[in-house]
Every structure is written in structure tokens, then in C-alpha cells.
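Running log. JK asked me to keep both predictions on one page so they can be read side by side. First protein, sequence followed by its C-alpha cells:
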Amino acid sequence: MTKPYRSENFCPFHTNSSQYCKEVIIDRVYEDGSEILEDYVIREEKVEFFLNGEKFLSVMTIAKNQDAHIVGFLLSEAVINSVDDIQTINVSEDGLKVEVIANVSEEGFQNLFKEKTLTSGCCVGVTGNAEKTFDCAFVSTDYTVKAKDILAHMKEFNTPSELFDNTGCVHKAELVLEDGTVYISEDIGRHNAIDKVIGQASLERKDVKRAVLYASGRLSMEMVVKCVMHKIPIVVSKAAVTFQGIKSANEHGITLIGFARNKKMNLYTHTGRVDV
């Protein structure tokens, strides 16, 4: 058997990110031939979420920041009102089971098991409980950001990470607070990445109401819902937005920005928060 060469995608890991990858042998085929290569693929895991002793969700994810992930999800779905509702969080030794004991309303807990919408990101969507909160919510703030600062940060945000360089298979989210604090997460799912950065900030009891959320994926309605639920006023992506994303952002007070790359960006709603 021919000894495989290393793919040009291989980049040396300088962090522990290699534990979230798996080396595989591939046949690289060209118009005029082929070769055998070693390459990296992402290593997704099924992580089970439990609330007050009852399993309510299994999620395909990168097994990293699992405590922040479940906290961000429960807050986004309006199952808990704040991190102070949580009594304990336990992540199993293998990282594939997360258990939370928390004070929740019976209605909020039961809504986890009601019919949900399969969103465009192929993740569980908004529960009935979150929908009621979302319907009457409007984000009102005097928080503004300079356009040049958004573009400068987006340029840095768009720099590929070790995981992306080696796999091309992760979404990224960053939450940038007014005081300069930055929370970063990567995951195979754009929803997961956003829940993780929100969870990180919440676990540190940070106020996210004066912050900008940067995302690598498209901004559809469910992305806007997460911002509304946490009162994050501005969300920016290098990718596209959808019509429902624009509609919900306009109705609920979110500044929606897409195609933020190459020194330009498109502002769709509540543009007054961006100083040009």
C-alpha cells in the first residue's frame, strides 16, 4: 500500500483543539489522477442534556463548553430566567452527559417536551414558552457602535482558527461586551456556538444587553430569537440574512447586519445603532 501523504490542509495544533478532530485516510481525486492523503475531520459527539433528573435533549455537538451550552440553551428557550435559577451543573467525566438542577416554572419545564419547529439549522427551534416571551419583546437601548469598529472586529473574526483550518467544518460565534470582554466558541452547529457564548457570559454573570454578537452563519429568524431573548441589540454575520430574519429583527428591535466582509456590510434593520 502506498504510504499516505499529509494533506495541505494539515496545520500544526498549538492548543488542545486536536482532541476534537480525528485523522482519516482519504483518496484525493483530480481531473488527471489521484493520491492517498492523511486528513482531519471534526469529531462530533452526541451530548445528552438532563434537567431536574429528566432527559430533555440530545444534541450533536463538539464536546466542549458543555456547561455553557446547556445554560445558554435553557436561557434561550426561556426555561430559566437567569443563571441564579441554577443550583448545580454536572458534566460527566466523558463529557457526553450534562445534568442541571434548577428552579423552573412547571410551564417552562413542560414546554421542553411540546411540539417544536425544526429550524433551517436542523436544530430544535423555539418552544411554546419562548414564543410567548418573544412575541411581546422589544429591545430598546441607546447602545451604539462605530461602523469602522464592527468591520475591524469582523476582519479579525474571519481569520480561520486551528479547527477550521484543519477541518473546514465549524461555525464560530463571538460575544463582545461594551467593556471589551470577548467570549468565543466554535461548534459544528451555528445555534450551538451562539448558545455557548451566551452561556459563558451568563455563567460569569455578565450583562449582555450592551454587546455585539458576531456569527459565521446565516442570520435566520431563530438567530434573531436568541438575541431578543437575551436582549443583545446588535448581531453581525459575514453570511447572508433571511427574510424572516429581517422581519423578526425589525419587529423586535434588533440591529441586523449581514455580508460583513471586505470592508463593507449590509445593514437591514434599526440602523441607528451603527455610527457611520
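And the second, directly underneath as requested:
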Amino acid sequence: MQNNMHTSLQVLLQNNTLPSLCAGSVALVGAGCGSLGNLTLAALKLIASAEAVVFDALVDSDILVLLPETCERYDMGKRGGNVSASQDAINHKLLELAQRGLKVLRLKGGDPGVFGRGGEEALFLARHGVKSQFIAGVTAALGCAASAAIPLTHRGVARSVTLVTGHQQDGETTHHWRTLLALGSTLVFYMGKDQAQKIAASLLLAGADATLPMVFISAGCREQQQLFYATVSTMTAAAKQIHTDGPTLMILGEVVAVGSELQQLLTDIDSGGLRHAVAG
């Protein structure tokens, strides 16, 4: 059976409907959130044929081992609080590799178009005469929510999702936060743990319910994943208790309570507290 699966995978990867790498161009590829399990077939095909790769800090090591042995590798990840490559340096490295006529892979955790600066890189390359393509990946909002059993939308609870960067910008007003709250949308904050106090204060000032549930998801979609539940009023204190390595995502909204209930029910099933009915 294992051989049959391997053969089937090879046939899938040879499918002409999947994207391919061209010499002298760049593929901006989403490696997905967390572990190898969130890698797409399109990404896998391009990884297998890359001649040079520029990857970031969120790409799982199990994904990097899939690269060809002859592939040139450039670790240019941005790591908060540590010395890391500038965006300008990354842009010029991609350009240099493409101008050498290589099949270039820009490998990013999550999705290249969601807080991944993929648009900036594509524009820079295009302005210098280099073509690129986007390959979608499972972004952290989707991957982390699924691994935490939290539905980002739920009938009667949340009809939309808003993805927000946790890095607050100068000039953000109370009106900005009121607009987000007025949507009744699930709010997902990327890179927000260190800004939890400011985010909570802004939300409360804008009229958010202090008891609105939220959760921090650290090392999402990995074996080390941890969930830290809180409310808008307690999220600042909760953030200070998180000392895990890796990125932390924040989900805020009533769907967090839905997910928490589901988690408890699943735990009860595992412990034998609930039994499913079998039609006889």
C-alpha cells in the first residue's frame, strides 16, 4: 500500500494543472501554518524542483528537508527581538538569484499574501523585470483555529472574520476599533501577544464587552501548541504568562466560547463521559 501511495503522489505532482518553476523567475510560496501537514501539493511540487530558496523563520524543518540536495539555501527569516535580514536585503537576494537564471523559491510560513510581505516582494521584482507567482498557503488564522477546534464563523454568532496585524500603527483612532467591533466579526490578531495591553485598552475604550472571550494560540499546528483562554479584560495578564517559543496568534470573539465548549465535549468523549448512539 505504501508503494501505491508513493506512486499516486508522484502522479499527482506531475499533473500539468499544478504550477511549475521557470528559470529566472520567483515563486512566492506559502509553506502553511506549523507542521508539514499543512503543506499543499502545489507547494510540494515547487519545493522538489527549486534551485535556490530564500526561507523565513516560520518554515518547519520537516519542510526544508524536502528541498533538493543541490538547492542553494538562504535563511533570511525575521525574528522578533533578534538580528534578522532586512526586507531590502531579502528583495535584493531574490533579484540576484533570479538574474542568475535560477528557479527561485521564496518560502514563507503561512500564506505569502497575508502579513507575509509577498506583495512588496512581487512588486520589487516586477519593477526590475522579474516575473513571480503566488502559491497560496494555509494562513495561521485558518490553521490555528482548526487545530484549536474553533470555528471562525458560526451561525448566529459570527458571520465574518477580520485579520488584523498586532503591530499597532501611529494614528489609529477609537473609530478604527469601533468599526472592527461594529462588524460583529471574529477578530484574529497576528503577532499581537506583545501588544496585548495596548490592544485590550483600545478595544475597551472603543466599547468592547470586557467579558468578550479570546484565546492565545502559541506554536499553533505544532506538537508544542498551547492555548491560553482569557477575556478582553484579562488578556493583558494572560499574555504575561506565556513564555513559549514561536509565534502566538490571538482569536477574539464569541466563537472562542463555541470552540471551548466543543473542546470540553471532545475531552468528555475521550474520557468515556459521553457515548455516541449507534443506530441498531
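Observation for JK regarding the second prediction: The radius of gyration is 21 Å.
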